[in-house]
Amino acid sequence: MLDDYETLIAPFSVGNTHPRFFGWAHGAGTPAGMVAELLAGALDANCGGRDHIGPIVERQIALWAAEAFGFPAASSGVFVTGTSQANFLALLVARDAALGHDVRKAGLGGARLTAYASVEAHACVSQAMELAGVGSGALRQIETDAAGALRLDRLAAAVAADRAAGLTPFLVVGTAGGVNFGAFDDLAALADLCAAERLWLHVDGAFGALATLSPRLKPLTRGLERAQSVAFDFHKWAHVPYDAGFLLVRDRQAHRGTFAAPAAYLSRAPRGLAAGEDWPCDFGPDLSRGFRALKVWMTFQTLGADAIARAMEAGCAHAAHLAQRIEASEAFELAAPVPLNIVCFSLKRDATGEANAEIVMRLQERGLAAPSTTRIGGRTVIRAAIFNHRTRRSDVDALLDAAVAVAAAPTG
Ligand SMILES: Cc1ncc(COP(=O)(O)O)c(C=O)c1O
């Protein structure tokens, strides 16, 4: 079987453990995470509920996350697959906060909710509106400034217009590290506006929220500590093996009230295995679920938050170096600001981006480097996201050198 694994499986993985993998927003794993996965498999724990170590470690991770983000220790937290799912659950909690928990039984009825996020927000926010039955048409996609931050004046105007039209604004989704190029919204200003307008502030911090671990990057997240909820992934910038998404909610009762169900077979007992007040299944829709907390706990216990933060800072430094080289390049130009660890660039004379897309495919197919693409300003651009803790400056240099060579001989 292991021989089959070596020949049939291992060579055909996407390659995100390789230092020249720059695509999408992938973590790169660690030996500690790998051992934790093996041990979790040996325990075969079901962490939906009951009184055992799985939910206790999950609670510990929620406490760590609350400390990292400046949330109260009583905040509730739950592991999910990823930030797409965490954003969806947060939207449901915000919906209940606006309409009351009766909405779980009665449905939306005639409520006409509206939500707000920047045009840089991840597509899963729009999908969450659809899944929740609110409808993606009720998501106002607000224009951004040159740095990619949601424009406050446009947000305030949109909320006012919706209220004037008899609609019910209920949620603002701030972005901490946008998927395209790592843009941050001004979360403190969003928190002010949400407090004044009595709106739920949820932050999609899929990878950017963990920037709070780095003293150098933390200022980008100012205001995060005032959000009602945060969605983020341990499997991206913290390199915990897939999957390890997390939702942290300030108001534990609001969170519990959205999901807890009074099923007889989930009754709590004063003692024994059914003891314990809150179970993870009270904070999300999953009942059967694995021991994701173990790999997070073991990763942080082994490496320490400081080492993880230093790896993030190194990725940002490599991105700044790559950006500098692109600015000096004859063939390529930057396609977006570089506030973090993501560099979007384009051939100088590629109006549609077709040639950029071709370069990316050739780099991937030839095994030279693996950037991905995105669309910025209507054109497909090359996107290098430097998440991997194994990436060195020589690897980003190799990426650009290979891109220049492929661009010079695109059919060669
Ligand atoms: C900003 C942002 N939000 C949400 C997501 C979706 O997260 P996941 O893939 O863990 O569902 C991503 C993924 O890259 C992201 O970058």
Report on the structure:
The radius of gyration is 22 Å and the shape is globular. Helix 2 runs antiparallel to helix 10. The chain has helices at 2-9, 31-43, 53-69, 83-99, 103-106, 123-131, 152-164, 187-197, 252-259, 292-303, 305-327, 354-365, 393-408; strands at 76-80, 113-118, 139-142, 168-175, 200-204, 229-233, 245-249, 332-334, 342-347, 372-376, 379-385. The strands form two sheets. The chain has a seven-stranded mixed sheet, with helices on both faces. It is of the alpha/beta class and 412 residues long. The chain is built from 13 helices and eleven strands. The mean pLDDT is 97. Pyridoxal-5'-phosphate binds at residues 25, 82-84, 122, 124, 177-179, 204, 206-207, 233, 245.
Largest sheet: 7 strands, mixed
Number of helices: 13
Oligomer: single chain
| Structural shape | globular
Beta strand count: 11
Structural class: alpha/beta
**Strand coverage percent:** 5-15%
What separation lies between the terminal Cα atoms? 39 Å
